[in-house]
Design a protein that fits this description.
Blueprint (H helix, E strand, L loop, with lengths): L5 E5 L6 H12 L2 E4 H10 L3 H10 L7 H13 L6 E4 L5 H8 L6 E6 L2 H9 L1 E4 L4 E4 L26 H24 L3 E5 L3 H15 L17
Parallel strand pairs: 1-3, 1-4, 2-3, 4-7
Antiparallel strand pairs: 5-6
Bound molecules: adenosine-5'-triphosphate (ATP) and uridine-5'-diphosphate (UDP).
């Protein structure tokens, strides 16, 4: 029986994690899990964790590890019969260790994109806050300028997507991501992709995953994903 497949995608702001994880989910039938979307759902539902997380996000800070872990690991417990790709978690070594103590990952994709490309992409990134759907005036513009394709609601830009905020975000990302990348490299499951265009990187990601992901339709076994946390 084919085993389940669990993966994580990592990369600095604007590297294309959301764009590529959507493509992977559609192409391979994986469930896409996004820590940012999950936080937004909790904020919209006014849960205790959502209210707490909002106080950090409003200041452009990462949500504390213990809040993220408590938010996400029970969600993974519901996924023992699903293959998934996680975007946006883990973001710190503590989160990676919490994840490792509950799930064994098959593969980690790390995106290595030049600063100038990140800056250019983020300056044109427009977001539908409620859903997290992402647009780009050049790469994937909305049907109606400034409006979300599905809801018709207004699109916004994040303050910390502005060039002046990017340098600090990028430095912070590199500081916190390095030990995680080293950890997954030592586990032999890290695959790094470099480039300036998702459409040129995609064929390589697609062919790697085609060799790693169990065939569609084969019966999937359950695979525990929590051993207490
Ligand atoms: N794993 C995490 N740990 C801590 N905070 C997180 C985590 N994931 C998301 N957050 C918080 O939620 C916010 C929104 O996350 P989301 O991934 O949607 O946007 P983002 O951080 O701007 O990502 P990117 O710019 O890389 O697309 C983040 O800025 C961060 O404050
Ligand atoms: O080849 C690409 C991939 C993405 N984007 C845009 O760049 C921004 C960042 O992409 P995404 O949100 O997927 O990156 P993330 O921050 O999730 O890594 C978004 O406006 C995308 O539409 C782009 O212009 N070209």
């Amino acid at each position: 029986m084919a085993k389940l497949f669990r993966a994580v995608i990592m990369g600095p702001p604007g590297s294309g994690k959301g764009t590529i994880s959507e493509r992977i989910a559609q192409r391979f039938g994986l469930t896409r899990l996004s820590s940012g979307d999950f936080i937004r759902e909790n904020i919209a539902a006014n849960t205790d964790a959502g209210v707490l997380a909002k106080t950090y996000i409003e200041r452009g800070l990462l949500v504390p590890d213990h809040v993220m872990t408590r938010l996400l690991l029970p969600r993974l417990e519901e996924m023992t019969r699903h293959s998934w790709l996680m975007d946006g978690f883990p973001r710190t070594l503590a989160q990676a260790e919490a994840l490792n103590s509950t799930c064994d990952l098959d593969l980690v994709i790390s995106l290595n994109i030049p600063y100038e490309t990140l800056k250019e992409r983020l300056s044109d990134r427009w977001i539908h806050p409620a859903s997290g759907r992402v647009y780009n005036m050049g790469f994937n513009p909305p049907h109606v300028q400034g409006r979300d394709d599905i809801s018709g609601e207004p699109l916004i830009q994040h303050d910390d997507d502005k060039p002046e905020a990017l340098v600090a975000r990028l430095r912070h990302y590199k500081d916190v991501a390095k030990p995680i990348i080293d950890l997954y490299k030592s586990k032999g499951i890290l695959h790094t992709f470099s480039g300036t265009e998702t459409d040129r990187i995609w064929p390589y990601i697609n062919s790697l995953l085609s060799t790693k992901i169990p065939m569609e339709g084969t019966h999937r076994t359950q695979r525990p994903c929590t051993r207490g946390y």
